[in-house]
Amino acid sequence: MTKSRPYYSFKASAMTFTPHRRDVLSGALAASVAGWALPARAASVGAMALGNAEPFSFDDLKTRAKELAKAPYTPPPKPADSDPLRGMTFDTFAQAIYKPEMELWRDVPGAQKVRLFPQGRFYAEPVSIYVIENGQARQVVYTPDLFNMPSDHPLRTLKSAGFAGFRLMSRGGVSDWLSYLGASYFRASDPQDQYGGSARGLAINTGRPEEFPRFTSFWLEQNGAGMTIYALLESQSVTGAYRMDSRRIQGGQGGALQDVECELFFRAPVDLLGIAPLTGMFWYGENSGHFRGDWRPEVHDCDGLSLWTGTGERIWRPVANPPRIVTNSFSDEHPKGFGLVQRDRNFENYQDDSLFYDRRPSMWVEPLGDWGKGCVNLVQLPTTNETEDNMVAFWTPEQKIVQGTVINTKYRLYWGVDGPPTGDVGRIVATRIGLGGLGGRDLDLRHTKPGARKFMIDVEGKVLEEQTRFGGTHTVVTTTRGKITGVEAFPVVGTKRWRMMFDLSDLDGQEADLRAFLQKDGVALSETWIYQAFP
């Protein structure tokens, strides 16, 4: 079992790399550049050497993935202990800086500019990168001359060196807005020029001995609005063909949008399949009670799982740092969407002017077409620091995955400030947990039932601004275990928020699943709040 993946924290404005994610995949080297096609050049792409032109289409890529699935998986060889990549640090990796003048499509007005990542210790498996023009694909030929780096840098002598990924640059080349690097991970920095959580091509057996499919080849094509990214995915259990139409959202709150289509071919059965997987980090937050493992009030780049079910119910599930690996499944049919969301945008609640957790983008998946029956899974893994991505959310279809199964899926992935509006119900904006009982004297442990906890859930929305304290608005709360007391609902003085409040006790060392919402005259006035309380 692994908690995170090989990745980096990239502060775009500073153009530097700093370590930020755990290495979860052993480094491995793949094909050498020896044997690549003889260099050629496409004038509109740039000055770098490209391979010979070959026809390309998404249908061809699907056929290639289908044929690969018929053969056993051949993993890339692991690097020898003496391989220079073994000893490469993040600082060494950061010394290899792609030359701006070698950007793909640099001299094409209005085109999306692309820079490439070299291999590194945590990205030891090279990927093939192609450019597409007029239906013809040419492979970008690796050479260390594409990078500014010290004369004694390991990549200058590494015989099997290659590319590890790529990034799409913002206008002017000061920062990037989308990057692909490591396994099948990719992420956007929009809308506030700050990276946070990541998406993946596919997740397999998350929270168990996990399999990490990886994108082994990319094809890049200008589409007028941004970039169309094609990718070939491979692992022990599956192959896949991906098309990701990627662009930035203009106007409003901005952000990035990707229309994703994938066709998957399974070599072997899979117990837990994750479609459209999202990953994020939650160390601690306002729902962590008295725990503070750091001087900052909160440390997380997502604070909840947002669900929009096929029946139209809006659900908010605050995430938490659990004492053990926990998987929660939310059964659904024809889901409208789900996402890992960072709702708290108040800098005062983080106090971090280096990593800017208040600016981390939220991620939202909107199914395109009928996804049928299945469930959204939330896997939460315990962590003791902020360097591990310990939150994972994905869709698992009801269909059993066996050898020979083929799945075609389409969805839209948004990177933005929040998920879609909650419509006619209020949105939950805070969950706080403390000792049970009332404030003041009852917080004296002599007057508080041992083990009792108080839950305070804040909600805001236009529908609540019209309600009065004694106008019939009340909290509906249920639990699978224990005793609920002290249930109240009231407007928070000096704000436009309402607060749900209750105590939970008598768990007897067991976990409890909680559910609460605001209601008036039988009509829900808020999202449904769902939480798992540990003893």
Mind telling me the CATH class of the largest domain? Mainly Beta
- Choose one word for the global shape: elongated
Domains (count): 2
Q: What is the beta-strand fraction?
A: 35-45%
Mean pLDDT, all residues: 88
Radius of gyration: 25 Å
Helix percent band: under 10%
Number of helices: 3
The CATH architecture classification of the largest domain is Distorted Sandwich
Task: Please name the CATH topology of the largest domain.
Answer: Beta-galactosidase, Chain A, domain 5
What is the count of β-strands? 36
Distance, first to last CA: 25 Å
Largest sheet: 16 strands, mixed
Which ranges are low-confidence, i.e. pLDDT below 50, for 5 or more consecutive residues? Answer: 1-39
Describe the structure in brief:
The chain has 535 residues and is mainly beta. The chain is 4% helix and 40% strand.
Describe this entry's structure for a reader.
By secondary structure, the protein is mainly β. The N terminus is likely disordered. It has a 16-stranded mixed β-sheet that branches. Strands 5, 9, 10, 11, 12, 13, 18, 23, 26 and 27 form a ten-stranded antiparallel β-sheet that branches. A four-stranded antiparallel β-sheet has the order 29-30-33-32. 47% of the residues are buried. The protein is elongated. It contains three helices and 36 strands. The protein has two domains: 367 residues, Beta-galactosidase, Chain A, domain 5 (Distorted Sandwich); 107 residues, Immunoglobulins (Immunoglobulin-like), CATH 2.60.40. A hairpin with a 2-residue loop joins strand 6 and strand 7.
